[in-house]
Amino acid sequence: MKLKVLPILIALLTSGTLLFGGWFMYRSYAMENPLKEIIQQNAGVEQAQVAITNQQVVVSLQLTNGASLRAIDESIRKDGEAYLKGKELKLQITSNSTSELEDWWSNSLFGVAQAMDTKQYAEIPQLLKNEAKTLPGLDVQTEMDSTSVYVRLSDGTHSKYVILPRTPATVGVWPNE
After folding, report:
1. In this structure, which long-range contacts are made by residues 25-31, counting pairs with CB atoms below 8 Å and at least 24 apart in sequence?
2. Could you give the angle at which helices 99-117 and 123-132 cross, rounded to 10 degrees?
3. What pairing do the DSSP bridges indicate for beta strands 56-63 and 88-94?
């Protein structure tokens, strides 16, 4: 029995297109779009893009001035739990920062990095408030949860958002507990 190549190729292309097209449509319409709608319901979210892979969910955010990054992160983790399904959530923030805010952050980063390395997270708000006196009109907001320290720098019209990952301290008398 002789097999014909053309019908086999057409069948393979058709089934491949249906399989991968269906997978793409499912991921886009059943996973990414509903999660994007949940994210955009948060106060302060101007624009959101969602990309889901096997290991992580990448959320690109553009925020308005004064948005609470901690509240948005918490909302995504809580309300979008069904879409995260144990995947790592990675937030990418597009800031409308200025060169003055970037320079100020670069100069303040040494003290912040030291506080993060020594797990002295309570020092970060005071450190940044003291440094804020060097740039007139700068408003510094810091928030923290069990996974990150969130920093918002604002000069009134422009903002810079920073997420600093933290490692929670282990409770116990011995290091191996």
Report:
1. 27/52, 31/83
2. 150
3. parallel
Q: What is the pLDDT of residue 143?
A: 94
CA atoms lying within 13 Å on the CB side of residue 136: 0
72 pLDDT above the threshold of 90: yes
Note the pTM of the prediction, 2 decimals. 0.77
| Token output for 170 | 């282990």
**Residue 48 Rama label (left phi>0; alpha psi -120 to 50; beta):** beta
pLDDT band at 176 (very low <50, low <70, confident <90, very high): very low
What distance in Å separates the CA atoms of residue 122 and residue 100, rounded to the nearest whole number?
25
Euclidean distance between CA atoms 107 and 132, whole angstroms: 11
Radius of gyration of the CA atoms of the chain, in A? 23
d(CA 157, CA 159): 7
Burial of 34 (0-12, 13-18, 19+ CB in 10 A): middle
The yes-or-no verdict on residue 36 having pLDDT over 70 is yes
Going from the C-alpha of 130 to that of each of 72, 89, 118, 133, 138, the distances in angstroms are: 27, 32, 19, 6, 11
Q: Which amino acid, one-letter code, is at 64?
A: T
